[in-house]
Amino acid sequence: MKTFTNIFLGLFIFEAILAAPTIHTLTYDSETYDVALEDLDNLYDYDENIHVDHAENDSSLRQFSGSLEYLTSAPSMSTKQKEAEEEASTPKLIDGSSPHEPGVLGPQTHDGLPTCLLCTCLGTTVYCDDHELDAVPPLPKETTHFYSRYNRIKKINKNDFANQNDLKRIDLTSNFISEIDEDAFRQLPQLQELVLRDNKIRQLPELPPTLTFIDVSNNRLGRKGIKEEAFKDMVDLHHLYITDNNLDHIPLPLPESLQALHLQNNNIQQMHEDTFCKMKDVSYARRSLEDIRLDGNPINLSKTPSAYMCLPRLPIGSLI
């Protein structure tokens, strides 16, 4: 430190010397000694300016020396203080997220990354498609649409969608889901669309009555995968797709709001006359249900013609 101070002081003095004006000596004629009066005045004034400049330089040197004495006598900064200052001056991505408190980029996943850094968040929609996820990541509270297709999720836990009061659509197409907790979707007050196609689901959990669109095609529901009257209270359900599930029956009762029912490629062998219509009410008309797909099932639709009298269109399927 002292060596650096001495070098810096020497440079400062050297520059001060270079900056000082030089004195030009007047040349007198030895024969005439002619010296103009204004030249003498200029000489006097010049010497006065030199005196002033030297005084100012002396004052600057005294101030600089005082500063150097303070620097050399000040205590050296501790290593911890230096590290703290360097850390404070280093730019960082300020997120503030934690497993319990969401930050700017959403809550942290199990891998320690914020959800909106691992996935893509656009407004209130979260896209996590094709990220090799093995679990549902924690979502920002304001999420309304969640897509996590083509991943490796095997189970939907009870708390995966906890406190997601604004969530309207869940799409988990093409995962490895084989188990869903009974309360996984029940506490979602705004859920309207649920897509679980192309998984390994054997049992549907209890679903919220707010659903308008359900697609659980290409799973393993079989005979007992859908509970009795599972869709009864869904007064706004418009589309129900349960293709390729090895079902042996049509899940009844179906809400009056239903517009499309896709049950192709199952194992349905028979249909009752009151599956869609009311046997005791010949005037009953079910005008909303226009799209029924039963093709790919071992059922002969021609055996129960009265089952379709209330519908605007006949079901698609075998009539032989």
Instruction: Please report the total strand number as a whole number.
Output: 11
Radius of gyration: 44 Å
Mean pLDDT: 79
- The second-level CATH architecture of the largest domain is Alpha-Beta Horseshoe
Main β-sheet description: 9 strands, mixed
- CATH-defined topology of the largest domain: Leucine-rich repeat, LRR (right-handed beta-alpha superhelix)
The total tally of domains equals: 2
Order of helices and strands: HHHHEEEEEEEEEEE
* Relative strand content: 5-15%
Structural class: alpha/beta
What is the CA–CA distance across the termini? 102 Å
- Which superfamily, in CATH terms, is the homologous superfamily of the largest domain? Ribonuclease Inhibitor
Q: Strand order across the biggest sheet?
A: 1-2-3-5-7-8-9-10-11
Name of the top-level CATH class of the largest domain: Alpha Beta
- Gross morphology is elongated
Low-confidence stretches: 23-55, 70-75, 89-105
Brief rundown of the structure:
This protein has 320 residues and is α/β, with parallel strands linked by helices. Helices cover 22% and strands 10% of the residues. It has a nine-stranded mixed beta sheet.
Word description of this protein:
It is a single chain. This protein is α/β, with parallel strands linked by helices and 320 residues long. The chain folds into two domains: 2-76; 109-268, Leucine-rich repeat, LRR (right-handed beta-alpha superhelix) (Alpha-Beta Horseshoe). 22% of the residues lie in helices and 10% in strands. Strands 1-2-3-5-7-8-9-10-11 form a nine-stranded mixed beta sheet. A two-stranded parallel sheet has the order 4-6. Strand 1 (120-122) and strand 2 form a beta hairpin. Helix 1 (2-19) packs antiparallel against helix 2. Mean pLDDT is 79; it is low at 23-55, 70-75 and 89-105. It holds the Pfam family LRR_8. InterPro entries: Leu-rich_rpt (IPR001611), Leu-rich_rpt_typical-subtyp (IPR003591), LRR_dom_sf (IPR032675), LRRNT (IPR000372), Mimecan/Epiphycan/Opticin (IPR043547). Residues 115-145 form the LRRNT domain.
